[in-house]
From TrEMBL:
Source lineage: Bacteria, Bacillati, Actinomycetota, Rubrobacteria, Rubrobacterales
CDD domains membership: IMPase
SUPFAM superfamilies: Carbohydrate phosphatase (SSF56655)
Top-level EC class: hydrolase
Protein known as: Inositol-1-monophosphatase
GO molecular function, one term: inositol monophosphate 1-phosphatase activity
Transmembrane helix listed as a keyword: no
Cofactor(s) annotated in UniProt: Mg(2+)
């Protein structure tokens, strides 16, 4: 397979995400066995089938590349390319035939996300970006929203009513969330980090907040939002990297207000 800057590689990534989404659609109302791999963390038979498709195709076309996938694991290569895969993001939604689910595919090299594709087949969309090449929904260019005040902003975050002791997740009792709720217009809890990031890049929402380092979900958001004209940091305002534990992505215009709300001291 060609170099990371090649349009051919990007076309392969985009097509692979699309084909994986088609597999999800075929089993949309028949997810097979659903089990809980952790507290409130589901995996279905379709997760595993999608992962098998992704890994087999990547291994066939790019045999030298490393792969880090949600279910099988793996590691980021110290040199060369690594593929980050979430075969079925929004599994809880999918298990209930909720249309907000997707597949996330991204490529990293030298610590940078160079390609990303998020296919949401029930919505008919493939969101994709190449470093330095812009962000797109299908074939249409994407730009972040023009919202300039936090009080007019839609925030995307997946929240819990029951905060876990010691966890960094946002619950309704979290003081930072209470501040954001009071300062913003509305919060959107979509149940899919991949779609949340793609919708931010498309201008449908203004902010995406991530509080767990699920890098296969965060990496696509980082590239899509940056290429669509937005800003991506961690929750403290530091530059987002593959090692970051949290993510704050926005249209850029409300980022300063967000950081003040999240870090008041």
């Amino acid at each position: 397979m060609s170099t990371s800057a090649s349009p051919d590689l990007h076309a392969f990534i985009r097509d692979l995400a699309r084909r994986t989404g088609e597999l999800q659609l075929k089993r949309y109302q028949d997810p097979g066995r659903v089990r809980e791999k952790g507290p409130k963390d589901l995996v279905t038979e379709v997760d595993l089938l999608c992962e098998e498709l992704l890994i087999s195709e990547i291994s066939r076309h790019c045999p030298q590349d490393a792969i880090l996938s949600e279910e099988r694991g793996g590691a980021i290569s110290g040199s060369g390319r690594t593929w980050l895969l979430d075969p079925l993001d929004g599994t809880a939604n999918y298990s209930r035939s909720n249309p907000l689910f997707c597949v996330c595919v991204s490529v990293v090299e030298d610590g940078r996300v160079t390609h990303a594709a998020v296919a949401a087949p029930r919505l008919g969309d493939v969101y994709h970006a190449r470093l330095g090449g812009g962000a797109y929904r299908n074939d249409e260019p994407m730009r972040v929203s023009p919202t300039s005040r936090l009080e007019d902003a839609f925030l995307g975050a997946d929240l819990s009513f029951f905060g876990k002791k010691g966890a960094k997740s946002l619950s309704y009792e979290t003081p930072a969330l209470q501040r954001l709720l009071g300062a913003s217009w509305q919060i959107r809890a979509l149940g899919s980090a991949g779609i949340r990031g793609a919708w931010l890049a498309a201008g449908y929402i203004d902010v995406s907040i991530g509080t767990r380092n699920t890098i296969w979900d965060y990496a696509p958001t980082a590239l899509l939002v940056s290429e669509a004209g937005g800003r991506v940091t961690d929750l403290s305002g530091r530059h987002w990297s593959l090692e970051a534990e949290t993510m704050l992505a926005s249209n850029g215009r409300v980022h300063g207000e967000l950081l003040k709300m999240l870090n008041p001291h």
